[in-house]
Amino acid sequence: MLQTCGLLLLWAVCLSGQETPLARATHVVVIGYDGLSPRGMREGSTPTFDGLLQTGASTMTARAVMPTSSSSNWGSMIMGVGPEQHGITSNDWQPDKFTIAPVTPGPAGFSETMFSVLRRARPTAHIAVFHDWKDFGRLVEPGVPNHISHELGPRNTMRKAAEYFRQHRPHLLFVHLDHVDAAGHRAGWHTPVYREAVELADQLTADLLKAVDEAGVLPQTAFLLTSDHGGIGTSHGGETMDELLIPWLVSGPGIARGRQLQRPVNTYDTACTALMLLGVAPPETWICHPVREALAP
Ligand SMILES: [Zn+2]
């Protein structure tokens, strides 16, 4: 940071260009609900989401990246860059099958994830990933998380994640739930079936909060809730605001209570923000920004 370069003590920071942020939380839990739109998050009975909105900082106008496909957006969320950089332009992408090469290949040959950045910064960090959509797994560098597993169904996925948290108290836990998107494709976004799926997502989120509380680290844990894209009719992937807008919510230690974020947030800012909360600077090659506006003074 240029403005800090006058201080000799920050000389090393000037050289690297990346200031190590002050850690706000010892544990960060990121929950991604596939296909959850901002409107969906506020429909139906969602007491857990309502509570986290009151205790945290949020925006209902965060943006996905184009195309509004799942892989492109899950990739951006954990890789801190857009499709122009990571090259994940559709769900057909595979680590060894792509047309756009990554700008800066990480250790696995594709764009580095926040899991890998955390592992490098803190080799002993405990990292766990539970995903309900099988293809999410290919976006994560093999061998980097302490645990990564594909679970079947939302209840099973969250139950396994909650059990794991109680037992291991990971520093970074990522949970992917797929059923809201499935309901949108099956019955349509914002239909009663979709709302039911959102209500289940809310209940499962409460289960994880309870597990973190039972693990004795709730006051030190930040929760970041978001999604990969919205939807319209029974699909997504196109160019409408209904598909592009996503909810983005962070709550926990050092986070402003009840703040509605005014500055634009993009899905790739999730990676930068999760790392910031853990006190880790993002790589200079990333384009994301940590959402500092969410921090309490
Ligand atoms: Zn999706």
Describe it.
This protein is of the alpha/beta class and 297 residues long. It has a single domain, classed as Alkaline Phosphatase, subunit A, CATH 3.40.720.10. Helices cover 34% and strands 15% of the residues. It contains eleven helices and eight strands. The protein has an eight-stranded mixed sheet, with helices on both faces. It is globular. The N terminus is likely disordered. The chain binds zinc ion.
Sequence-ordered SSE layout with sheet pairings:
Layout: H1 11-16, E1 27-33, H2 38-41, H3 47-55, E2 57-63, H4 70-79, H5 83-86, H6 114-121, E3 127-131, E4 147-150, H7 154-168, E5 172-177, H8 179-187, H9 192-214, E6 221-226, H10 241-244, E7 245-251, E8 259-260, H11 269-277
Helix pairs in contact: 7-9, 8-9
The chain binds zinc ion.
